[in-house]
UniProtKB/TrEMBL annotation:
It comes from Paracandidimonas soli. It is a single-pass type I membrane protein. Signal peptide: none annotated. Its main location: membrane. This is Cell division protein ZipA.
Length: 343
């Protein structure tokens, strides 16, 4: 190596040292000026919290969040976004938002256009929440909207309504929002709606007395047969406590009747929302025939034709195939997740 090359290398090293020293000197001068204008204080809301967290990791103390330490003990909530069934808007806040303020901002947000909306949050310091808890504060929020139900697929208008809610939240609390493109969401909704439509099977049977009967008489007979109250309906219950099929009076739930007499009874087997049964139709038809005998009428199918007992087994086989298809696509009959879409 020549003297010239050695000299150039030495000069390069010297220049690097000069730059490093200069940057160090500049940094010290800037820090000194900052301390003059913003002296550190143990009670400072920002610097104090930073010092505490660096010296004692895992223990954060911030003004206004008195119950934060208790929140550390609470495990994550198990309920999460169901990505195949829901579209999600992810909201990140610039600063942690107290639960009470966030609750007021999202109060009343339960659906858009008949599509249920669920709210999930990430607690400041860590922790997944499927509901907001008093005393906590949150750094992010998820708005999850159902893509389809019996009201049809999620529409562009419904998706825009949820977007508006998200925009209002980030304007109020400062933050940002991320979400899939609208066209992608609408296409997903249409595909889910089409897939579920092929599995959405309901079977009905009807009884039409020759003349209207007193409601009190109908209520007594249905109790004797074995129907039990279920929400606003009367239902024939399974051992699991789930309804196998419902009883409608004049096309309505018993709680919604506006008359003291009844001219028509309907038995409704809603396959997605009833537990799997090896004889779903035979069971309902048997109860229907018992009712028909007590009311002095005939059991009819949904076309108004008398139901022939010899056909019960064949219909059971057809419904068993629908049950199997529901389960194979992830919709277990009678379960809450299935009810979310088939409602």
């Amino acid at each position: 190596m020549s003297d010239l090359q050695i000299g150039l290398i030495a000069l390069g090293v010297l220049l690097i040292l000069v730059v490093v020293v200069f940057n160090w000197w500049q940094d010290r001068r800037i820090r000194a000026r900052m301390r003059e204008h913003f002296p550190e204080d143990e009670n400072d809301a920002l610097l104090g919290a930073a010092k505490t967290s660096s010296s004692m990791p895992g223990e954060r103390r911030e003004p206004g969040f008195a119950s934060m330490a208790q929140g550390e003990l609470l495990p994550d909530d198990e309920e999460e976004v169901d990505h195949p069934l829901e579209a999600v808007l992810d909201i990140s806040f610039a600063h942690p938002v107290p639960a009470d303020a966030l609750q007021k901002a999202v109060h009343g947000l339960s659906d858009v256009g008949g599509k249920p909306v669920r709210i999930f949050a990430e607690r400041d310091g860590g922790g997944h929440r499927s509901r907001l808890r008093a005393g906590e504060s949150y750094v992010s929020l998820q708005l999850a909207v159902l893509l389809a139900n019996r009201g049809g697929p999620l529409t562009a208008i419904e998706w825009s309504q949820l977007w508006t809610v998200a925009q209002e939240l980030i304007a109020k609390f400062e933050g940002s929002v991320e979400a899939p493109e609208q066209d992608e969401v609408i296409q997903r909704a249409a595909r889910l709606d089409a897939a579920c439509a092929e599995l959405d099977v309901q079977v009905g049977l009807a009884l039409r007395p020759e003349e209207p009967l007193p409601l009190s008489q109908i209520q007594q007979i249905t109790r004797d047969v074995g129907f039990m109250p279920y929400g606003r309906h009367l239902a024939w219950m399974a051992e699991s406590g789930q309804p196998r099929f419902l009883l409608l009076m004049d096309g309505a739930a018993v709680a919604d009747l506006q008359s003291d007499s009844v001219s028509r009874l309907d038995l409704l087997l809603d396959l997605p929302n009833s537990p799997v049964d090896t004889q779903p139709f035979s069971r309902m038809a048997g109860v229907g025939r018992d009712l028909a005998r007590r009311l002095g009428t005939v059991l009819l199918d949904d076309q108004g034709r008398p139901v022939v007992a010899e056909a019960d087994g064949k219909i059971d086989e057809q419904l068993a195939e629908i049950y199997a298809r529901l389960e194979s696509t992830g919709f277990v009959p009678g379960q809450p997740r299935t009810a979310l879409v088939f409602s």
